[in-house]
Amino acid sequence: MQENFGQRAEHAVVRRPSDRPADAALARPDALTAAEFAALGAVPPELEWFANIHNAQTRRAYRRDVKDFAAFAGLHKPEDFRTVARAHLIAWRKHLEGRALAPSSIRRKLAALSSLFDYLCEQNAVGHNPADGVKRPRASHAEGLTPALSDAQARRLLDAPPETTLKGIRDRAVLATLLYHGLRREELCKLKVGDLHLREGVLHLRVDGKGGKTRFLPVAAEAARRIEAYLEAAGHRGDPDGPLFRPVRNNATGTLNKPLHTASVYHEIVRHYGRRLGVAAGARGLCVHALRATAATNALARGADLARVQGWLGHSNIATTRLYDKRDHRPEDSPSFKVSY
Q: Is the C or the N end of the chain the one with fewer CB within 10 Å?
């Protein structure tokens, strides 16, 4: 179970039309056969919980967390989770602390197990949630840990790609889209050409965010200029259903009509130009999320309303947005610079 919990969960509720009798498929293509009905009725609630996690990134993280706990506790099948007691989770927490995991990682792992047991309680598979009462490490930071670039660093990064190549023109548009709108890299890669459109006469981006939430963001003038230059150079402006940002070469298949990969955004754009400029060394942990933090920090520092920034970033909880609000922690306001001898 430790190796295939996620795979079993993802396939537990998937029907295979090819396995159905021909007459049943012809009579009602969307109907369950008797065998499928029985199979779905036997799906353990542990697997139902996992299959109901829609966000792919959350599903990957929770799969690792559940496998980690299963390996520690010696659980071999989904039903074994029903024998877990609070003492098992306390022992696991001690084990994680002994591995010197970050408090945030331990909190997330315990949250994953708590979510699972909440679902099992709802399904009457267990009588209580053993994660209740298991103390989690405190989140001691009042600010986010993701580094934000200074204005000077952001300007240097925006102008780092060359304007003489298709890749450089694309990368300039990608960096501007990230730095002016605070998108997650998954959101950036899912953008289609048609997502760039007018609303009430103003150019907007339609962004598909986490949790299936859609938001519409006015496009900053500099970003719009760079995106238009990229569409002109790439030549796919007339493909509204196609991906907005695409590879410029594909040595394996030659197919370019596909979305830019999230790993490429990180390695070939953000980290590539960050290292070239020395920005990666100046901002520890430079990543795509650092550009999101930079956009949020910049907007708040220039007077943007906190609640508006929350919606702009697609945060469910305003407390998450507050992690980017450094207006009360500006270095120039520190008492260190008021001391004089």
A: C
